[in-house]
Amino acid sequence: MAVLYNCSLFSIVLAVLITTALAEIRSTQIRSDSRSTIPFDEFGYTHFGRLNLTVTDITLSHPKSGPEPVPSELGFFLVTREAWQHVLEQLQDGDIRCTLHSDLVKRVLTFDQLQPSVKQFNTSFNVGEANQFTLVFANCMPNLEVSMNVHSVMYNYNPKSGNLDFLSAGKTALPVIYYLFFVVYVLMGGLWVFALYKKRLSVYGIHFFMLAVVILKALNLLCEAEDKSYIKKTGTAHGWDVLFYIFSFLKGITLFTLIVLIGTGWSFLKPYLQDKEKKVLMIVIPLQVVANLAQVVIDETGPFGENSYTWKQVFLLVDIVCCCAVLFPIVWSIKNLREAAKTDGKAAVNLMKLTLFRQYYVIVICYIYFTRVVVYALETITSYRYQWTSVVAAEAATLAFYVFTGYNFRPKTHNPYFAIDDEEEEAASEALKLEDEFEL
Q: What is the distance between the alpha carbons of residues 14 and 46, in angstroms, rounded to a whole number?
């Protein structure tokens, strides 16, 4: 029963793994680890998938009073998530005593295949089944501590072209997808430059800031495309991952800052920020630093890396706080516009501003909900073969958000929000009187 409780592959917090990641090629150090199962990495294989596994400096240490290690109960295997649930049931029912004995796993190598004095081995395993597998080390000897260095290389072979694909089966289309979105953002940036030039007398600082956000997003996508392209071909990012993290960090900070600045009406409604609005930025920017640090750790250590679970929780918490924080300036602007509409006599202009800020508030909520909740749900329920669909959904939603923001806050000749004649002013006054209070 103790073995069963230690075997939960997807719920163990890996506190003693020290991992160095190079994309789908992963090197991991295990030091004095007595867990019954140690997960390493996941990969979506085709029918021509292979695993190259190199293990060095193998050391086994056990209590003097304990039994001698049984080599057949130590080894590596591949297992799908669905099969793992059935393996746990077999352990619980007593049908098997060790995970390596289950017919639901693919045994890569057990230590009884090694000579007693051998401290290292190198093996190549033909998976032969299209599915998403997790590489796991099984230790079915209680209290036996294992130390070793594990180097795994996972890839799919294309028999038609003869090329190796180091991207998981569901992610192999990502380089093309990112390149396409990069081209779209370049075109959008060009259109924005043209709009700024054409309406240059109505351009405010916020409009140049929008251009900077689009440029950083385009560069981020370019680096992501190159990153995935090099991983696909060679298994390593060749430095593009560093550039990706830099531009991802800058893009994240500028996007959240832009939402705050638009929400406050900075530049095109007022040339200053209030103290409470500055405090929001002082909160959002450091949190974005933490979020990007968490993203680097999660990506580079893999799904089962050291403290990966903790960093995922940190990332989720920080992201939620940032998303909530950027909504406050929009709420404050809506409140201020409601109050101004009753006193300054510019009912039509204030009604137009109020309507626009309400729309923006709703769109920001929808954008946050879709990219944080719907995309995550899509990742969870989608087959491993179609993991690229969640990326397309997230990028399409982000593009739509950028387009909405740019269109509604573009430079206008009679900024802000056109000239209003007397009849429109009177009609807007009546509308404001009849309108119910906006509830958030």
A: 28
Pull the structure tokens for residue 151.
Answer: 């180097």
Q: What DSSP character marks residue 160?
A: T
220 close to 203: Cβ distance less than 8 angstroms: no
Sign for the CA dihedral angle at 251, 257, 261, 263 comes to: positive
Q: What is the DSSP letter of 202?
A: G
Give CA–CA dist 333/339, Å, rounded: 10
Sign of the dihedral through C-alpha 415, 421, 423, 426:
positive
CA 318/CA 250 separation, integer angstroms: 16
Collect all residues with Cβ–Cβ distance below 8 Å to 107 and sequence separation of at least 6: 75, 76, 77, 100
How does pLDDT run across 141-195, given as a tens digit for each residue?
Answer: 888 889 999 999 999 998 888 899 999 999 999 999 999 999 999 999 999 999 9
Of 173, 187, 152, which Cα lies nearest the Cα of 41? 152
| CA–CA dist 357, 341 (Å, integer) | 14
Q: Which of 2-11, 34-43, 71-80, 427-436 has the lowest mean pLDDT?
A: 2-11
* Residue the block writes with tokens 């950027």: 326
- 327-341 helix and 347-369 helix, angle to the nearest 10 degrees: 160
Phi, then psi, of 47 in degrees rounded to 5: -65, -15
Residue 312 has pLDDT above 70, yes or no: yes
- Give the 3-state DSSP-derived string for 270-281, with helices as H, strands as E and coil as C: ECCCCHHHHHHH
Distance CA 124, CA 52 (A): 4
Looking at residue 371, what DSSP letter applies?
I
Q: CA distances (Å), 214 to each of 401, 403, 408, in order? A: 12, 10, 16
The SS3 assignment for 44 reads strand
The H-assigned helical ranges of 235-370 are 240-264, 275-301, 308-325, 327-341, 347-369
